[in-house]
Design brief:
Blueprint (H helix, E strand, L loop, with lengths): L14 E9 L4 E9 L2 E7 L7 E2 L4 E4 L1 E6 L1 H6 L9 H14 L2 E10 L8 H17 L6 E9 L5 H8 L5 E7 L11 H12 L3 H32 L4 E4 L4 H9 L4 E3 L4 H9 L3 E5 H6 L9 H6 L5 E3 L6 H11 L7 H7 L2 H6 L16 E7 L2 E9 L2 E2 L2
Parallel strand pairs: 1-4, 1-5, 6-7, 7-8, 8-9, 9-10, 10-11, 11-12, 12-13
Antiparallel strand pairs: 1-2, 2-3, 5-14, 14-15, 15-16
Amino acid sequence: MNVNMTRLATASGETVLSGARIVLPESVVDGHVVIRDGLIAEIGTGPTAVASEDLGGDYLLPGLVDIHTDHFEKHVYPRPHVRWDMMRAALAHDTQIIGAGVTTVFDSISVGSSDDNPHRAEILGPMIDALEEAQARGMLRAEHLVHLRCEISVEETPALTEAHVSRDIVRVMSVMEHVPGVRQSRDISHYLKRAMARTGETEAQTRIRMAEMIAQKGAVGARVRPQIVALAHQHGLPLMSHDDTEVGHIDEALAEGITISEFPCTIEAARKARAAGMTIVAGAPNVLRGGSQSGNVSVADLISEGLVDILASDYVPRSMLDAAFMVAFDGRFADDLPAAVAMVSLHAARAGGLTDRGAIAPGMRADLLQVGMFDTHPFVRQAWRSGVRVY
C-alpha cells in the first residue's frame, strides 16, 4: 500500500472511529467501529473510552461498490479526438472514483469497436494494462476490477474477449447489442435524429445505412453472442444481460444461464426478470435526472415496484452516493437508508462475486466512508480501504 496512505492507530494497534451514525445492513446506530488488521473487528453503540477519531455525528457507510462505470474511457479520450496517456488517464479516473465514495469499482471497458467509437478495439488491452500496473505499484486508492462489456454485433469481440478474459483483474462480463431498433435503441426515430446530427446525412441516406447495419449486425450477433456466453461460463465469471427490453430478452438470458439483468429498458422486462429471480441493475443517473436520457423506463418507477437490487454509476461516478440518499429520504420511497445503501454496496459486491466487503459487519473488510450532509447533498469527508485512509 502506498506509504502516503496513513491510518489512525491507537496504542493497541487498532483504529477506532467513534461519534458516527453507522449504517448497518438493517439499521442505523450511533456508535463506534473498531478496525483491526484491515477488518472490522467490533461495532459498539454509544461513546468509547478508547482513543479514537471522532466523526462528529457524520454517517459511516460501507465503501461503495460500482459494478458498471464507463468513466475510464472518458479520461482516455477527454475530447473526441484527444487520446490521453493511459496511466495518467487511470490515475485521473481513480481520483474521481474515490472522491465519489467508491472503494471498489468494476471498470466497464468495451470489447469490440462501434461506428461511434472505432478506437475501442485498440485501447482495450492498454487500458487493462494501465490498471494492472498502477494497482500493482500502489498508485490507486480504490480497488479496480474489470467488467468486460462485450458488443455482440462485432465480429472481433470473441477474439478480443478470449485475449483478456483469463486476466485476474477481469471479474465480470456482460453481453450488449447496440443496433438500431433493438434494446436501448429500439426507438428508430430517436436513433435517426442522433445519427443525422452526428453524420450530417439526410434522413433517406441514414435510413439506407441503418437498414444495412441492422441486417449485417443482426447476423453477426447471432454468431457472436453464444461464444461470449460460453467464455463467461468457462471462466466462471458473472454474466449480465444488458438493456433487456422485451420479455423475450429475459427468456433468452435465462436459457443461457444468465442471472443478472443490467439496465432493463422497460418495466415489463424488469418484472419478468424479478419473477425469474434475476438480480436487477439500474442506473443511478436515471434516479437523479428523474428519468432516462434515452427515453427508457424511469428507475424511480422500477424502485417503487421493488424491481431494483443494484444502482450503478454508469456514466457519473458520484451519482451512486447521491442516489442512495435520494432513494432513502425521498417521499416516494420507504424511509430506509440501510436498504438504499445496500443497493450501492452489498448487493453490487455479491453480484460481482465479492463476499468480503459491502457492509459494516464484524469480519468484513474495513472499506468505509465518512459522509457528511449539507442540505440534501451527501459528501465524502474521508474514505478507508482495508482500514487504511485513502481519501
